[in-house]
Amino acid sequence: MPHYVIVGSAGIIGHYTAYKLLEQNVHPKDILIIGEFLPGDESIKYTSPYAGGNFSCITGDDPQTLAFDKMTYKELGRLQHFLGGYKCGLDRVKSTEYWDKRPSDEKLNSLESYLYDLSFIPSNDLPDGVEYGIEFITWNFNCPKFLVNFQNFLVSQGVTFERKRLENIRDAFVDGAKVVFNCTGLGSRHLGGVNDTKSIPYRGQVVVIKAPHIQENVMRWCDDKPTYIIKRPDSNDQLILGGYLQKNDWTPDTFREQTLDILQRTTKLYPKILEDNRKGDRIEDLEILRVVAGLRPGREGGVRIEKEFVDADKVLVHNYGAAGYGYQAGLGMADKAVLLALGHLKL
């Protein structure tokens, strides 16, 4: 029977956690991942497949988050190798990122310490209203494909997956289980034994278009309406256009006015989307493949990575709340959660 149980909708944080357990020489047959949803499924309650999926500079500037980002960025190459190379749904591309307000020195110093091929954009080359900009080589994810390949890798190592919906976190302590990782994201709000009312969604809406002529990312960060263009790797030329960051909005539907707003903002920020489009130079000429909404699993006060004891001899480790940066900070989060579980880190 498994000694380590990871609970969630088999999202990116749960996968990263299993991977980090393997790194710590936990036997794969001692690891069980329980999820109401599994890679390949679609549901508004299963956020990970809907993510735009890239390493960006959207995160905050507190030391913990900066450290999570740095670890994840530096380790993704190794993970890509294990999952079969760039065809796994993870690849590197150029990214240009703009801020309406200059980031803190702490954030910029951290980025400068590890981003590959980083350069700073001269002020006279910045778009109107932008205070700061950088270019670097980033990681992009084809999230649905990456999750399936990640699951296949874990299964090939001997990790077990089980489709199951739990009513209470205690139900995860199956026979023999000593440690349970709660990676349920927004599910932590209603999961019995957790009921974390600080867990809240940050709704986003994106437009997926076919754009073989675009091979890079462009981002502009502001408060509630970030604008981003993300090249989805190994996807038959899909481009993700967004978006929104709507706090505490649970709406699963998509709206035409938001779609038009996204198309207008992204093509203004990066006119090449229209200028080199083979079907014409108007927004109406873009080949729209899909419009989707997703609920980023956020948390008031930031991520929760915390250890507690259940019935004296069982350990529960919480690992959730990353909102829109689970893919890019999740390896760092998982590393901390696993070290807590194994007793190598104390809080």
UniProtKB/TrEMBL annotation:
Belongs to the DAMOX/DASOX family. It comes from the Eukaryota. This is FAD dependent oxidoreductase domain-containing protein. FAD binds at T47, S48, T184. D-serine binds at Y228. GO terms for molecular function: D-amino-acid oxidase activity; FAD binding. Keywords: FAD, Flavoprotein, Oxidoreductase. PROSITE patterns: DAO (PS00677). Its cofactor is FAD. Gene3D superfamilies: D-Amino Acid Oxidase, subunit A, domain 2, NAD(P)-binding Rossmann-like Domain. Residues 4-335 form the FAD dependent oxidoreductase domain. One of its GO terms (biological process) is D-amino acid catabolic process. GO terms for cellular component: cytoplasm. D-dopa binds at R296, G324. The keyword Oxidoreductase applies. It comes from Candidozyma pseudohaemuli.
